[in-house]
Design brief:
alpha+beta, Cytochrome-c3 Hydrogenase, chain B, four-stranded antiparallel sheet, three-stranded antiparallel sheet, 14 helices, 17% strand, globular
């Protein structure tokens, strides 16, 4: 909508398309400032936490994996770790190592999908990766991204039994662990992928980024000896440093009238930022050697407060994931048995792992028979939703002098910085503008 003098007065987005889920955006502008903004999530509630009640702990990893088709490993790993704490189980080092390899596979396929197919078109002015591929200039780039994603999928299938919603992860380990010869068969592809990921960092660092920064509180896991995936303490750029078990003492979810998705906030604080940019900013010294080199050669300086540079952060994490995957495979010892013995008992446990989009919190309470009495799951997108709204409030006034189509495109691009999953994925905005 525009006023009589041609100024933008209202931006209404009916649907966030190219996201897995249903949502919209409504922005009201008054005197060049955002008077009201709502990122509306009207995806119907899915009730995973409710229908986990009464289920055996053994069922939880496979059920929670169905929450997302892009990051099922994250849900399985957070669930397994939390339930193992409740049951008093510690997995042996070979299982721990295989879980990190499992996570590397998910980071590779998810980051490649986002960087090349979902986010790059925004920077290059294309409607989609399909239209990019139709341009001879960009077709090799799209093909590179697809091959990188395929390698991640192949590693996922080898460890998890299938690419989508893998089935081998369980409380205590894996139903089946791959043989080393099976993993070594992927070594050539992973070596190609490592070089492709290095090239991806160079390519993404050469994109044009809007000049936009915010005073973020970045939140991520941090581990003293490794780049965080499955373990660590929760830290922030503003001094937070807590054990996972204290998460709910510092973070709270709240209902908002315009959304079926909860918003997560810092208690006595406000919005915060989770995901690759937060992880990288808080864990620069934990990167693998090749990832560190890619970072040093990057023209963009990190830590970065510009959310648009998250595409570079994802690219650097892909370098790390490929390099760590190769290291794990070369030193791999097949866990035998692949799963430790588990006996049902009552208990409560919580855990956080680093999903591709940020920290993922699970908490479970079990009865004497190992049946779930209570479950709580806080996904990364719930933690980023309020931050996305805050970003838009700050960003929209800086682009109001652009044509309406450009403003819409910039808003789409800003939201996609977070790779949001409404049902856990990312897509386009479909904009409808009304003139007041």
């Amino acid at each position: 909508m525009k006023t009589s003098n041609g100024a933008i007065d209202r931006i209404k987005v009916d649907y966030l398309a190219r996201v897995e889920g249903e949502g919209g955006l409504d922005i009201v502008v008054k005197d060049g400032q955002v008077a009201d903004l709502t990122l509306r999530i009207f995806e119907p509630p899915r009730f995973f936490e409710a229908f986990l009640r009464g289920r055996s702990y053994q069922e939880v990893p496979d059920i929670t994996a169905r929450i997302c088709g892009i990051c099922p490993v994250a849900y399985q790993m957070s669930a397994c770790h939390a339930l193992e704490k409740a049951l008093g189980i510690t997995v042996p080092p070979p299982v721990r190592s295989l879980r990190r390899l499992f996570y590397c596979a998910e980071w590779i396929q998810s980051h490649a999908l986002h960087v090349y197919l979902l986010h790059a078109p925004d920077f290059l002015g294309y409607e989609s990766a399909i239209s990019m591929a139709e341009d001879p200039q960009w077709r090799p780039i799209v093909e590179r991204g697809l091959r990188m994603k395929k390698i991640g999928n192949q590693l996922l299938a080898l460890i998890g039994g299938r690419e989508i919603h893998p089935v081998s992860a369980c409380v205590g380990g894996f139903y089946r662990a791959p043989h080393k010869r099976e993993l070594l068969a992927l070594k050539g592809d992973l070596e190609w992928g490592l070089q492709a990921a290095m090239d991806t960092v160079t390519w993404t660092a050469g994109l044009t980024f809007p000049e936009f920064e915010c005073d973020y509180e970045f939140v991520a896991l941090s581990h003293p000896n490794e780049y965080p995936m499955n373990e660590g303490r929760v830290i922030s750029s503003k001094g937070l440093d807590i054990a996972m078990e204290d998460f709910e003492a510092h973070f709270v979810e709240e209902h908002v009238a315009h959304s079926n998705a909860l918003h997560s906030l810092r208690i006595h604080g406000g919005s915060y930022h989770v995901g690759p940019l937060a992880r990288l900013n808080l864990n620069l010294e934990r990167l693998s050697p090749q990832a560190s080199m890619a970072l040093r050669h990057c023209d963009i300086r990190f830590p970065s407060m510009n959310p648009f540079t998250s595409i570079i952060a994802r690219s650097i994490e892909m370098v790390h994931a490929f390099e760590e995957a190769l290291h794990i495979i070369e030193t791999y010892e097949r866990p035998e048995p692949s799963c430790v013995s588990v006996s049902p008992k009552s208990g409560e446990g919580c855990h956080i792992t680093e999903a591709p989009r940020g920290i993922l919190y699970h908490r479970y309470r079990l009865d004497d028979e190992g049946l779930v009495q209570e479950a709580q799951i806080i996904p990364p997108t719930s933690q980023n939703l309020r931050r996305m709204e805050d970003d838009l409030r700050a960003f929209v006034p800086t682009v109001l002098d652009l044509p309406l189509e450009q403003v819409t495109w910039r808003c789409e691009q800003l939201i996609r910085n977070y790779d949001p999953c409404i049902s856990c994925a990312t897509h386009f905005l479909k904009l409808r503008v009304q003139w007041r």
